[in-house]
Design goal:
The chain is α+β, with helices and mostly antiparallel strands and 80 residues long. The chain is built from 4 helices and 3 strands.
Length: 80
């Protein structure tokens, strides 16, 4: 079963990176305030990037890598 890493653009212009099996369901949780603490404080506006992986382990490694990126590097990835 595939796993996904996603980047959300928040309404304040910041980015949130996460991983999930079902991105659409997870984003709905974020929008309802049931997601991460970050997205409760920085309301998500839209999905700007999704990447698919064959294992949760690979998705988690990529999530950590993207979270270490600067804002501008995340922006470039989202606009790719």
């Amino acid at each position: 079963m595939p796993y996904y890493v996603y980047i959300l653009l928040c309404k304040d212009g910041s980015y949130y990176t996460g991983q999930a099996k079902n991105v659409e369901h997870r984003v709905e949780q974020h929008k309802k305030g049931q997601g991460a603490r970050y997205t409760r404080m920085h309301k998500p506006a839209k999905i700007v990037y999704v990447e698919e992986f064959n294992s949760r382990s690979d998705a988690m490694k990529r999530e950590r890598e993207i979270k270490s990126f600067s804002h501008s590097k995340k922006q470039r990835l989202a606009n790719f």
